[in-house]
Amino acid sequence: MIVLMRGILRFAQDDKYSQHSALSMYLRLLRENRDFRLLYFGTLISLGGDWFLTVALLDLVLGLTGSATLASLVLLCQTLPIFIFTPIAGHTVDRVDRRRLMIAVDLIRGAACLLPLFARTPAMLPFAYLGVIAISIGSSYFEPASQAALPNIVAPEDLGPANVLMGSTWGSMLAVGAAIGGAVTLRFGRDVSFVVDSASFLISALILWRMRARFSEDRPASHEHPPLLESIRETVRYARSHPRVLALLTCKGGYGTAAGVVAMLSVFGKQVFGAGALGIGLLFAARGVGALAGPFLVRAIAKSDEHQYRAVVFCVLAFGAGYTALALSKSLAFGLAAITFAHLGGGAAWQISTYGLQREVPDAIRGRVFSADWGFVTLTMSLSAVVTGIAADQFGPVAATIATSCAALVFAIVWGGLTWRLWR
Length: 424
Hints:
It is a single chain. By secondary structure, the chain is mostly helical. Helices cover 83% and strands 0% of the residues. The protein contains 16 helices and no strands. The chain has helices at 2-13, 19-32, 34-65, 68-93, 98-112, 125-153, 159-188, 190-210, 228-241, 243-259, 264-272, 276-301, 305-327, 332-360, 363-395, 397-419.
């Protein structure tokens, strides 16, 4: 915390990198690059709808069953299918038109959002889980395509600011979408939230259709795409022969071993703090505020790429410390502050890893690398969410949250020790 505060003060005193000039840089990118602007606002709309859906689903499961394990299963269904499908998705992302692929995926996910409308009783909950799984499979294609395409949409010198802005969309829409989603679910019911998310995917597809930028570099006419298994082996060989890429690939996945603790937000909001769907929404909103501010903060403090990569250690330590503070919270207000701090670190670590891979990996293999990255983190998050949910049912949410938070602290120390010399 002290390191972060010193960095903020140092940044505020630096005329060359004043807050005004930084803001101008982000605004200029949005104003001058039409295609990036469309991608940015399309992502905002889609992610806002996603958090409507997440809050409504968690409230639905807890309302029908009261089980932390089944609530964690929602997060498992959001993540585990991504891991299963990423080998195929990465192979596809580097072979086809990425923009058309993303449009098709958005249309399918828009239909899948309506399946939870059939979950009226505990026996009908499989419809809700089926909808989440379908959306998750779509994400295994959409997210790597979007991340792989970004370096082709903006100029090289704008990649850093563009990455921060795109990373902030997740946090800002989590903050806004989760808070409003909790209020809308409480006031109008879950069904409205499901419909809102469906509409957000359709709007995102329309915005992507209007974009004209090339999402991939031109391939030579003689270029041949390897078959699936050889494509996977090629990706593994590439990562093993590039230590910096391998380190960045393990960043999100290692962090994911503790990230399943976010499943406890619904339990703390509804049961520990007794605030119902609104409490769930506010805790997710606090998560979004931290994830929104984290990427901007780390870029302000760490000017060079190498300094940003090393900052991952401190970011993950902040994540673990924040969730430990949540476990010890006696009030919703203190819990909100703890979650905001935790995701300052979590959001920054995520953005650093994504930016690093975009800088280090060529376009021809970038889709497969991002699919591997996405698949690894969703696997570890899935397992972490299930273990944390079971532990909460057996030992209580406080003990489960503290235990999972310790995994973040251990990973930060080990990862930092193994990778520190790579960032020269």
